[in-house]
Amino acid sequence: MKYALLALTLLSFNAFSAVVKSNDAERGCTLFQSVTAEENGNVILQPGQVLVSSKNTYGLSFTDMEIDFDRREVRVQPMINIVLGFNRMLTPAKAIIRQDNPEFSFLINQLNRKISLFEKICINSSNEIEYAKFFPAPEQK
């Protein structure tokens, strides 16, 4: 079974991604994005991008929600989801989702979702999540 799983992982290597970060000047936040590696397994960085993780990732998610009713905010741990469960934290501390964020309900309802993973998460210098976006839906033929 282990060998079958390893073979499947190696055969589908191109389907996996890496995580890069760049600056979203329009929203004033650091954009973490899951990008697809090229055929040879290397990631081609666009201008302004820095490699965060070259591990075989399949998306970004939130875990470990903590609600602060007095401050009217939620703290979550953004995670890089890595193949075979070797997930790692995207940021050293929990990120904040404030009640006045226009995407507040959407963001907190994504906690621990593994079916729909984020492609992008943007976190500002105050460690507040500005926005997060799912991977685009596959085109129908």
Largest sheet: 8 strands, antiparallel
| Overall average pLDDT | 83
SSE sequence, one letter per element: HEEEEEEHEE
Quantity of strands, as a count: 8
What structural class should be given to the helix and strand makeup?
A: mainly beta
Strand content: 35-45%
The shape is: globular
Task: Specify the number of helices.
Answer: 2
- Fraction of residues in H or I helices: 10-25%
Note the gap between the termini. Answer: 34 Å
What is the C-alpha radius of gyration, as a whole number of Å?
16 Å
The low-confidence parts are 2-14
What does this structure look like?
The chain has 141 residues and is mostly beta strands. Helices cover 11% and strands 45% of the residues. It has helices at 2-11, 104-108, and strands spanning 17-24, 29-36, 50-68, 73-82, 88-89, 95-98, 118-123, 129-134. Strand 3 (50-68) and strand 4 form a beta hairpin. The N and C termini lie far apart (34 Å).
